[in-house]
């Protein structure tokens, strides 16, 4: 993963084209970049993020920010009760219990 100014880039290698291509993954707007070497890829990623921020500034728009950490989650009433009960048994808040479980899967 690449990081620049709070943004994260995900990279894949296209063996047919012989180049790396990537996308900034933590925002709704689409920002892509590519390169044939690691150095070029990192430079292109940073340039793409910087260009995006400059473009937003020129248009007077607020750039899309990386995710805030707030997540709205809908569950069935049965699952909601089950998760809440498990969290209480472990002495945790519902948010902390869910966050801990998600971190375990990553």
UniProtKB/TrEMBL annotation:
It comes from the Bacteria. InterPro entries: Arc_rbn_hlx_hlx (IPR013321), Ribbon_hlx_hlx (IPR010985), TTHA1013/TTHA0281-like (IPR035069), Uncharacterised_HicB (IPR008651). GO terms for biological process: regulation of DNA-templated transcription. Pfam families: HicB. Gene3D superfamilies: Met repressor-like. Signal peptide: none annotated. This is HicB protein. The lineage of its organism: Bacteria, Bacillati, Actinomycetota, Rubrobacteria, Rubrobacterales.
């Amino acid at each position: 993963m690449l990081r620049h100014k709070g943004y994260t880039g995900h990279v894949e290698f296209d063996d047919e084209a012989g180049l790396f291509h990537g996308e900034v993954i933590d925002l709704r707007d689409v920002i892509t970049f590519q390169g044939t070497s690691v150095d070029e890829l990192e430079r292109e990623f940073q340039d793409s993020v910087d260009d995006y921020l400059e473009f937003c500034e020129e248009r007077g728009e607020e750039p899309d920010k990386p995710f805030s950490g707030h997540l709205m989650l809908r569950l069935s009433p049965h699952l909601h009760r089950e998760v809440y009960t498990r969290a209480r048994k472990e002495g945790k808040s519902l948010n902390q219990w869910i966050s801990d479980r998600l971190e375990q899967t990553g």
